[in-house]
Amino acid sequence: MYKLVAIDMDGTLLREDKTISERTKKAIQSAREKDVTVVLATGRPIEGVSRYLEELNMYTDKDYVLSYNGALVQKTLNKDVIGKIALTGEDLHYLKKLSDELKVNIHAFSETKGLITPKNSKYTEVEASINNIDIHEINFDTISKDEVIVKIMMIDEPEILGPAIEKLPKEVFEKYTVVRSTPYFLEFLNKEVNKGVGVEMLAKHLGIKQEEVITFGDAGNDLHMIEYAGLGVAMANAFDEVKEAANYITDSNENDGVAKAIEKFILDK
Question: CA 132 → CA 45, 69, 256, distances in Å?
């Protein structure tokens, strides 16, 4: 029997208009009524999913959220931290220098300052809008080397970001977990961090076995948790490598793919 379900947001739980279908809401609620823990696993900060947590009634003392691609796992109600694996200001300085050389925009999430950028740009505005948070323009040279940085992102037009990724030194991939979550977002996390690690941290906290976990995803930053789960479910609209890693391919995010798989594997419909 499955006891933990971790669901990616964009391209998975959410339809293209950023809403959750009524069928999906009902399936999630029915699973929770069977004592299955259902969590949102996202690259966003918790503020970026608060309205969906409210919509799904996930602000009880039994609810958790995986944010920043698993770098931070916490309770939703009181924000108690279950697990945290972060970067530092030193990493920020290193990647800022690299972004300057590659001529791509950069921003980051500081534990104390929130969304920070040396120069506001189109896709930092997108990030702020998606998550309903403020942008803080800061000279990164003023950030101390030991500042806690949860996530760093290179953000730019796909035709700029794509060639820049090709030019990234090999050592970057050795130092960090690097995931392209959208065509215009490239994310850098602590090498030990990915959504799979986040799901594993929560599963161990709850005393749930790996084979009792279901994960849903569509993009590169979902790959680790798809591989980790007892049942990794890819959306019909998922990247090819996610489909290849999955145990099961469900319908698309536009066609209640999450609901259909929950009904099949948990609700026996």
Answer: 10, 18, 26
Domains for the chain: give ranges and CATH numbers: 4-84+193-265 (3.40.50.1000), 87-190 (3.30.1240.10)
Q: Which of 262, 237, 264 is nearest to 15 (CA)?
A: 237
Q: Give just the sign of the alpha carbon dihedral 75, 40, 165, 117.
A: negative
For the question of residue 8 being annotated catalytic, the response is: yes
CB burial of residue 30 (10 Å; 0-12, 13-18, 19+): middle
Q: Which of 261, 237, 260 is nearest to 247 (CA)?
A: 261
User: If we measure between CA atoms, which residue out of 20, 16, 143 comes closest to residue 88?
Assistant: 143
- List the end-to-end C-alpha distance of the chain, in Å, as a whole number: 15
Mean pLDDT by 10 residues, the chain (269 residues): 96 96 98 98 90 96 95 94 95 98 97 95 95 95 95 97 96 93 92 94 98 96 96 97 98 98 93
- Catalytic position from the list 8, 63, 218, 222: 8
Name, in order, each residue with C-beta under 8 angstroms of 178's C-beta and a sequence gap of 6 or more. 168, 172, 186, 187, 188, 189
Characterize the bridge pairing of strands 185-190 and 148-155.
antiparallel
Q: pTM here?
A: 0.85
Strand partners, 135: 115
Q: Report how far residue 242's alpha carbon sits from residue 246's, in angstroms, rounded to the nearest whole number.
A: 6
